[in-house]
Design a protein that fits this description.
This protein has one domain: TIM Barrel (Alpha-Beta Barrel). About 45% of the residues lie in helices and about 15% in strands. It contains 12 helices and 8 strands.
Length: about 290
């Protein structure tokens, strides 16, 4: 089972909005050096809604080839049409991904049975392990624990990214899920509590900016070193909040540009971080000791 800090990687772009592939390779090296356990390429934080299918494939392929087995590569493969999700999953498998992350279908509000059949069809179309992704704040559709447990019986559906921030639901799921079903927090602010309540790792936006500290937090929590985990979490709390002070990933991209790792390019309808918010993100970066 993959554990620890997994980054929901931004897709670096030049100021003209084009994907910056040299910067993408630099980010892969940066995360490997900083102790990140896995890289999620072209998830929501990777601006998947605004990338073309060809760009999506090229980003995943670049990350997989450059990682060259040094770190697990998880490809975003979600869509709100099941046929498209199946096609995307097959394409990400061909691009070299190690695993897939599939978000609940958005906007069309499927039933729980529809969600089950959607994920089942996608998983059965590929040989790769599949992680479910539940983020009802963005998708409206909400995977119930009962549906997650049904899906966990499918051989290659191996885990869940839970971005609900609902620790009561998480506690219930840890009681009933198979022992080898991986549970990852997708909500940085509650990630420490999630880990200490039976979670196996974090798929983190904050890890874009403070990967070493996020990795240290996860390792401390897994080792039962509560004082160290709490100390790391205290340093990260402002960053957890302020990387969402404006629509993500604009704050993360600004922070990475501040670190000199990428240019500050982003695609409409998202906008670069405003001047008013920049000092707040910078202060959080100082609190986390990344600058």
């Amino acid at each position: 089972m993959l554990t620890g800090s997994l980054v929901a990687l931004v897709t670096p772009m030049r100021e003209d909005g084009q994907v910056d592939f040299p910067a993408l390779k630099r980010l892969v090296d940066f995360h490997i050096e900083q102790g990140t356990a896995g890289i999620v390429a072209v998830g929501t934080t990777g601006e998947s809604p605004t990338l073309t299918h060809e760009e999506h494939r090229a980003v995943v392929q670049t990350v997989a080839q450059h990682a060259a087995g040094r770190v697990t590569v998880i490809a975003g493969a979600g869509a709100n049409a099941t046929a498209h999700a199946v096609e995307l999953a097959r394409d990400m498998q061909a691009a070299g991904a190690d695993m897939l992350l599939s978000v609940a279908p958005y906007y069309n509000k499927p039933s729980q049975e529809g969600l089950y059949q959607h994920f089942r069809a996608q998983a059965e179309a590929v040989a790769l392990p599949v992680l479910l992704y539940n983020v009802p704040g963005r998708t409206v559709a909400d995977l119930s624990n009962d549906t997650i447990l049904r899906l966990a019986q499918i051989d290659n559906i191996v885990g869940l990214k839970d971005a609900t921030g609902n620790l009561a639901r998480h506690a219930d799921l840890t009681r009933h899920a198979p022992a080898d079903f991986a549970l990852y927090s997708g909500d940085d602010s509650t990630s420490l509590a999630y880990l200490l309540s039976g979670g196996h790792g974090v798929i983190s936006v904050t890890a874009n900016v403070a990967p070493r500290l996020m990795s240290r937090l996860c390792l401390a929590a897994q080792a039962g070193d509560i004082p160290l985990a709490r100390s790391c979490n205290a340093m990260l709390q402002d960053l957890h909040q302020r990387l969402f002070i404006e629509p993500s990933p604009a704050p993360s991209k600004w922070a990475l540009a501040r670190l000199g790792l990428i240019q500050n390019g982003i695609r409409l309808p998202l906008m670069p971080l405003t001047d008013a918010s920049q000092p707040l993100v910078e202060a959080a970066m100082k609190q986390a000791e990344v600058i």
